[in-house]
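Lab notebook, page 48
Experiment: co-folding of the full assembly
Goal: obtain a model of how the components sit together before planning crosslinking
Operator: M.T.
Materials (sequences as entered):
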Amino acid sequence: MKRRDFIKKAGISSVAASSVAAPMIARADTKLKWKMVTTWPKNFPVLGTGANLLAQAITEMTDGRIKVKVYGAGELVPAFEVFDAVSRGTAELGHGAAYYWKGKIEEAQFFSTVPFGMNSQEMTAWLYHGGGMQLWEQTYEPFGVLPAAAGNTTVQMAGWFNKEINSVNDLNGLKMRIPGLGGEVLKRAGGTPVNLPGGELFTSLKTGAIDATEWVGPYNDLAFGLYKAAKYYYYPGWHEPGTTLEALINKKAFDALGKDLQSIVRNACKMVNQEMSTEFTAKNNAALDTLVNKHKVDVRKLPDDVLTKLKALSEEVVSELAGKNPAAKEIYSSYDKFRKQVVAWHEISEKIYYNVR
Ligand code: CA
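Observation: model returned without errors.
Model output:
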């Protein structure tokens, strides 16, 4: 009797054990093929290769349980349709920047960059530790998309110009490729902003279809050969002081994963976030040297009064955006509170150190 009881109990418990174990076995057997669509030309230095690195990391860390294949801009969908493709599940992953979706979600721009706003270190701190990430997730939730910070350009350059900028008046009528809030600022300064994917910049500038373009910084701009299409290279990148690049994850595909795979996907994004920003910092140095000393590029600082004007217009543009809807207001108030605190701290740490070293 006792023995039978034991067998019975053992039988029950082994059934229970196997039903608990079943999903784990299923996860170990998972063989998923994910597509990653990107806004970047295939294999473009840092931006494209960073997306490749994310795909490779997920594939390797999951030991092939999720195999990710990367598509450059236009291969599966055009650059500016990446968000929609991930939203509708055409691709499980995407890589781009949040300001590209401003036509769909205006407040998403706060998660890429704000003119005269936070730099890369500060942006990442806000996202990871200042509540930014939760707001970003909330913003994309209605679209079935989960965002992750996955790269940062660090401070960009103001761009390549075929006309000298000596005063605010020189911005009048200037046709320039400049995305996001920076574009809106240029518009208020009398210019005409256009949004073109990276792959179209060189030809547009060379043929005179645009008078100026910004792209990223010395390393990426050298790769596109922009110095062959414009006379002047201006700094600083007031419009993009530390642009966060993003990974877009189809929420349904993510929710279907076990906790282990979800953790891998999230942490792979964190790794790439770090990798891309440090690669930009490391490679921009040598590229700037090449542009100046080998290609004899005329590198110039934007005049102070131009920067002052652009800053005033930026404040106007950003506060208008913040007033557009309750979601934008909530994001901006979080962003601005963090910005003020971090600026106060960096005044006596990073900034003073830059000045004295
Ligand atoms: Ca840019």
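Interpretation: Residues 159-240+296-334 form a domain with the D-Maltodextrin-Binding Protein; domain 2 fold (CATH 3.40.190.10).
Next step: discuss with group before ordering constructs.
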